[in-house]
Amino acid sequence: QLQEQQKEIENMMNAIFKGVFVHRYRDVVPEIRAICMEELGMWMRSYAASFLTDGYLKYIGWTLHDKQREVRLQCVKALQGLYCRRDTAAHMELFTSRFKTRMVSMVLDKEPDVAVEVVKLLTLMLENMEEVLTEEDCQSVYPVVYVSSRALASAAGLFLYRRLLNPQREAGREPSRDGDNRTFFRRLLAFFIKSELHEHAAYLVDSLWDCAGTRLRDWETISALLLEESPTEGLADQQEKALVEILAASVVQAAEGQPPVGRGPAKRVTGL
């Protein structure tokens, strides 16, 4: 009897989905399309056994291309609710392979608040789906640390830190302040020099300040690296110059507590 009732409920849910949702997710009113995406995400989280399938996920994937900001935003937030847990993310492999290119491209969405949530989404994918993001995918996110919108740059800073700079990411060990920070600064220097935006150290430091401010304020380790004379441990001239720029930007950031000139809540993504 219980199985019969469950089957009856599922049939009713399918009828409602096909009779209402399938028509309204393309409604001419953007608010209705946004509500459809928000609710679909909720159904998937609450009733994963019934709704967390590729047959339902495809509607979110298609709607990532919607022209209206609020609709794309609700799609991304619905996906955040699924990628934030390993158990639900495990069901997303086919969806990810089909729509990952679109999600990565949305890092440059014309609406900064959408782009911010997309970078947060990619950070969740980085944490909860092993190696799903290729190096090429990540290279699309890294330069965003230099954009003028602080919220977007900070989100990209966290992504960069988690993917490339955090010494404990692959080690899984307790922090060892001196050794870990040396590793952090060497990786940061390698990224900064490779990015070839040496006049923008202040922007890079500001982007990382919320997630790695404690490391950036480790003047002792920075000084030790600059004074190191060992041929194996010492820095090359280009590295020393870059580290001095990062040190100066960190001191200014710690003293003033303000983002660099030109960075703020910009209306459009600029500065790439």
> How many angstroms does the end-to-end distance come to?
61 Å
Number of helices: 14
Strand content: under 5%
What can be said about the biggest beta sheet?
none
Give the overall silhouette. elongated
Quaternary status: single chain
- By secondary-structure content and strand pairing, the structural class works out as mainly alpha
As residue ranges, the low-confidence spans are 171-175, 266-272
* Radius of gyration (Å): 22 Å
Number of strand elements: 0
Estimated helix fraction: 55-70%
Short description, anyone?
With 272 residues, this protein is an all-alpha fold. 70% of the residues lie in helices and 0% in strands.
Secondary structure layout plus pairing:
Blueprint: H1 2-24, H2 30-46, H3 48-51, H4 54-63, H5 69-83, H6 86-89, H7 93-105, H8 112-128, H9 135-141, H10 150-165, H11 177-195, H12 201-216, H13 219-227, H14 237-256
